[in-house]
């Protein structure tokens, strides 16, 4: 994706009070001048993508909230970083945990940037194609941000316009169903995006990404008819193997995320100390401050599973093979996959299975496509005595295929196996506590904390 130098992002920062002076620099963009032409809006779109790279999101913090929280990765160092990450591991986090406040703030910063673009785009003259490109990209990112918010915290404020500080102080948490409706609306807008971009624009959101994320949203809503509807065209494209395709895992990871046909959407990074790289310590490294892969090797069917060595225990300070991208000056350009073809095939298999009364060949074919891609032989219908047994196989395949990709924790919650995986842990922990810093900043604090947690 084209990069724009850092001064562009200054126009995305919420301006403070300026009661005393109203001086606007003539050679530096301000919020009033930044969005008045197509070039400014295109720069703002880059700023929207930029925040996804943050160490508070896919650059690091999501690995704590979505992987360490699950059962594929554990943190065994109670003292590192003041213990805030270890609290996530052992379900003792409080509303004061900084992992929570940092992620919350970064997600709403992303939404704020999206809202600024959407608020200003109507006043700028441009072609219909350019309008659809700008609106579609930021609508997707806003939808992704709200999808992460609602899965982490449940009810959250729904903000679709730029706000002043006083506006924000009057925010209330919206019902989950209403937030999902907004996510669906945004993704339907994003479906108007092109299916592919020119090589110099690779990495931007496509219509395939919008449909795949929309299908995942419907999966969480258990609307399997809609999952099937959204994924059927993408599955056909994957089977053709031209624009999208399943790619054997060792060829997708660790170094080829930027070019792999398996990648539908990824958060992209560059290295070189220009603010576009990800620091090694911000992404998973084994035994780095206590991180340990806890996915049992026995979960893999055989040594022929080419994912096994990518997720094998490593030496202290080493990355697992899945994200072992070479680093320069302790910086790596390793992208973070958000949506992959393998994920699409497993969602498709799950939807087909849930829509039937017993195992079907269609669901099994989608599952086998992922298995074959990992170097494993086909399963037969006779291997499954019931719909439930095929469901378990699909969910297990998700665990192995999508490990370290920020899906496992959410899969544990949505498939109702939390109490099975985490015996004795209070069920209210399926949602995180609302950060205390957010509660302190609103005028009406009623209904601002999730069940089980205490407002400080």
Q: Report low-confidence residues grouped into runs of 5 or more.
A: 1-28
CATH architecture of the domain at 206-266 and 340-406: Alpha Horseshoe
Radius of gyration: 22 Å
Output the CATH topology of the domain at 206-266 and 340-406.
Serine Threonine Protein Phosphatase 5, Tetratricopeptide repeat
Fraction in helix: 40-55%
Using the coordinates above, name the CATH class of the domain at 206-266 and 340-406.
Mainly Alpha
End-to-end separation in angstroms reads: 43 Å
Number of strands: 7
How much beta, percentage-wise? Answer: under 5%
Topology order in helix (H) and strand (E) letters: HHHEHHHHHHHHEEEEEEHHHHHH
What shape does the CA trace take?
globular
> How many individual helices?
17
Q: For the report, how would you describe the main beta sheet? A: 3 strands, antiparallel
Physical arrangement of strands within the biggest beta sheet: 3-6-5
The SS-based structural class is: mainly alpha
Overall mean pLDDT = 88
Could you describe the 3D structure shown?
The strands form three sheets. A three-stranded antiparallel sheet has the order 3-6-5, with no helix packed on it. Helix content is about 45%, strand content about 5%. By secondary structure, it is mainly α. A hairpin with a 2-residue loop joins β5 and β6 (about 330). Mean pLDDT is about 90; it is low at about 1-30. Pfam families: SusD-like_3 (PF14322), SusD_RagB (PF07980). Belongs to the SusD family.
